[in-house]
Amino acid sequence: MADRNTYRSVGSEGARVDAWDKVSGAAVYTTDIERPGMLHAKLLRSSVAHARLVRIDATKARQAPGVHAVLTRDELSAVNSPVYGYFIKDQPIVAFDKVRYVGDTLAAVAAETEAQAEAALALIEVDLEPLDAVADIDSALANGAAELFEEAPLGMLPKYGVGASAELRPMANACYVFRYSTGEKSAFESCDHVFEDTFEFSRMHHLHLEPFVTVAETRGDHIEIWTSGQNPFPLRKEIGRVFGISENRITVNTPYIGGGFGAKNNCKTEPVAILLSKLARRPVRLCLTTEEGFLTNTQHAARLVLKTGVMNDGRFVARRSEIYLDSGAYSDASPLVAEKAGYRIPGPYRWEHIDTDCYCVMTNTAPAGPFRGFGGTQTSWASESQIDMIARRLGIDTVEIRRRNFLKPGDAFVPGESGMDSDLEEGLDLVVAEFAGATTPRKPNRGLGFAIGFKDGGGVNKPALARVKVATSGDALLQCGTAEIGQGIKTAMTRVVAEILDIDAARVTYAPINTDHTPFDQGTNASSAITVMGQAVERAATNVRDEILAFAGQQLNRTPESLRLCDGMIIDADDKHPLNLMVMGYYGGTGFEFSADGYFKSPGDHAAPLESPCVFWEIGWGGVEVEVDPDTGKLTVLKLVVSGDAGTAIHPLVCRGQDEGAAVMGLGQSLFETMKYDGTKLLNGDAMGYRVPLASDLPAEFISITQEQGLGPGPFGSKGVGEGGMLPVAAAIANAVEDAVGVRITDLPITPQKIIRALKNIR
Q: Are residues 489 and 397 in the same domain?
């Protein structure tokens, strides 16, 4: 595996802050948390996809050995609201009227051991009245289809800016639609060519190594949880709403998280664990199995219909998109994903007219929610595939058609939006150059493909607070709510603080996340940590440094501007004054602690379609060389090149790891990964049956290029990375397959069977 690093980086590489904890096994995850007297919980799940809950009787289970609490719909009267969700409150803690998919939660038991809890589950009697089920987008939208919700659940619409809008429940079995339009629809009339193509995107599972897990401990009217969740503060807020408790009586602790990729947002295992703890008056641990994870959250399957108008020279003019996301049985974050998918479908190109509708369609399958790329995976697959198809139809080079239409640095993505902060052409040229020797002479059945992954990053209107405290010794403590989920954020943030305070990074400690003490953060998502929280951390570190220099200036009778802080020393021209001696001399033997906060939020602006301009743009450039066996359809990826723009890499190796990990997920999405359903029954919901890339599946050549174009808004010009490397891979592979053997695959994953069928159709 090769690495191509360009431009510059901040500081030396060094080890990750969390490296020793993780390689030694000392790292504490939520799965490791134990509380005195802790019980263990298990869930009873529905074996029916859609049914009315007629009767549930847990009398025998309550009398079973070791059982301390049983939760059914009969206990929901103890909560303020029995349902939760993002924009739409539709997912019950346990089923109270219906079950809506195979795996829906009917009841829960807390016992001394998991085995006792499992045994008690078998004693619960359930009567269900089966209802017709809808297994996919087509059946859900068909006339007369069974409805998952006869009455619309409580929901809300966010504020949108110019050109954007949304609607709750636009039709039966569609819980949300996001719409965006700009320019004149008449633009299609001026086009030389209008092409319409349909693309299918398969459902995937996050397959994070650490399962969904919560430890809950209730004491009177106080709730404390340890959770593997990615957004402790919004989670605290939702728990407060569900249980009718003020947020200052809820404590959320977030230890290390063993992967999540978006799945571990908002309520998952937390409400059940909390309610069982209240019933049992004991701490309760609810840890799902890997198999249960498949039934808890997934990526959206999707259908994308793109109508694109272009001129003879390949200039893009207009794009009309209809996107249908399979949201599964509950809305979860589907409205947010629809918002992003609908907004990102134009890609990083210039258009005179854009018109998009993105629907969230409810089906009797496992709920879908956030997934790495957050709608960008679906839209990059369709958009970048169609762009290649259009280029070939017009006889234009597939790389050249992109160059002709790229937005330039500083160009607004759409009217009212922020400008591009990466040079798209420069990034594409770096990737294309890696294939210079593969173009001539071309070997039979080999092909090249390129694609651009594109998403707005940093979240929408997202606030962040941070606090930096400096002790008498000059050592620093950083408090911020960004969770370490494997992405290396502890390393990056401590480096930012160290750089500003001019101390070794080892002298900065990243405090554990506890919502009682940690400043607010909206959540660890949208590649936002270094650009949103990073700016809050940068400001906190700058503010505390200025506070220290102001103090030193008073002691030395100097202006703060004439002093600087370095390695715990105050530098005054050529003189060095130990900070600790100055502090002790003024405050006495107990010493002192300097403390300052930092805050960042992208300003609101109604001119921006999402009511707040994008913080930064995350771009992923990808290129592949493939070989296809026309007799068997076997597809071999010979070479994979991915590149992301980190702006300025705070830690180059961590950035590289993020891009390469994302690219491997993209490879899995392209070739293997799909949740296979027989109607409403999941067939491969386990780690053995769900195919992910193996080490032997990696290309012989796998190159990552860490660009540092320096245009990011984060500290020292940094930008978020970690999602962009996934986005271009699927389309690049499909484009390479057509280049190799002349067939176009428009549904994922790209399997030998699909290639053979396509080849037979052209022979």
A: no
- Which residues are CB-neighbours of 575 under 8 A, at least 6 positions away? none
CATH number at residue 660: 3.30.365.10
Q: Are residues 583 and 719 in the same domain?
A: no
420-448 mean pLDDT: 92
The answer to whether residues 517 and 611 belong to one domain is: no
Confidence of residue 13 (pLDDT cuts 50, 70, 90): low
Inside any domain, residue 663: yes
Q: How far apart, in whole angstroms, are the C-alpha atoms of residue 125 and residue 753?
A: 45
Question: Do residues 3 and 703 touch, judged by C-beta distance below 8 A?
Answer: yes
Does 146 fall in a domain? no
Residue 263 sits in the same domain as residue 313: no
Instruction: Collect all residues with Cβ–Cβ distance below 8 Å to 205 and sequence separation of at least 6.
Output: 293, 294, 298, 299, 673, 675, 685, 690
Mean pLDDT across 281-302: 98
Q: Could you tell me the two tokens for 73?
A: 């719909």
Is residue 71 included in any domain, yes or no? yes
Q: Torsion-angle region of residue 57: left (phi > 0), alpha (psi -120 to 50) or beta?
A: beta
Handedness of CA 550, 553, 559, 560 (dihedral sign): negative
- Are 324 and 362 in the same domain? yes
Residues 438, 349 share a domain? yes
- Cα(79)–Cα(286) distance, rounded to whole angstroms? 19
- Could you tell me the CA-to-CA distances from 497 to 472, 494, 536, 682, 688 in Å, in that order? 17, 5, 11, 47, 43
SS3 assignment, position 694: coil
| Per-residue confidence (pLDDT) for residue 574, from 0 to 100 | 81
Amino acid at 79: V
pLDDT above 70: residue 5: no
Look up the domain containing 469 and give its range: 463-601
Tokens of 282: 């004991």
Residue 316 has, within 13 A of its CA and on its CB side, a CA count of 28
What pairs with residue 306 in β-bridges?
Answer: 197, 321
Q: Which of 275, 294, 313 is the last residue of a domain?
A: 294
Instruction: Find, among 13, 9, 17, the residue nearest to 493 by Cα.
Output: 17
Burial 90-110 (b: 16+ CB within 10 A, else e): bbbbbbeebbbbbbbbbbbbb
Residue 141 falls inside a structural domain? no
Which tens digits make up the pLDDT trace of 664-721? Answer: 999 999 999 999 999 999 999 999 999 999 999 999 999 999 999 999 999 999 999 9
Q: How many domains, the chain?
A: 3
pLDDT value of position 11? 44
Q: Are residues 124 and 262 in the same domain?
A: yes
Residue 621 DSSP SS3 = strand
Q: Are residues 529 and 663 in the same domain?
A: no
Query: Would you say residue 9 has pLDDT above 50?
Result: no
Helices (H) and strands (E) in the chain, counts: 17, 35
Q: What b/e string do you get for 256-270 counting C-beta neighbours within 10 Å, with b at 16 or more?
A: bbbbbbbbbbbbbbb
Radius of gyration of the chain (CA): 27
Domain boundary pick from 601, 635, 667:
601
CA geometry: angle 725, 730, 735, nearest 5 deg: 120
State mean pLDDT over 709-734. Answer: 97
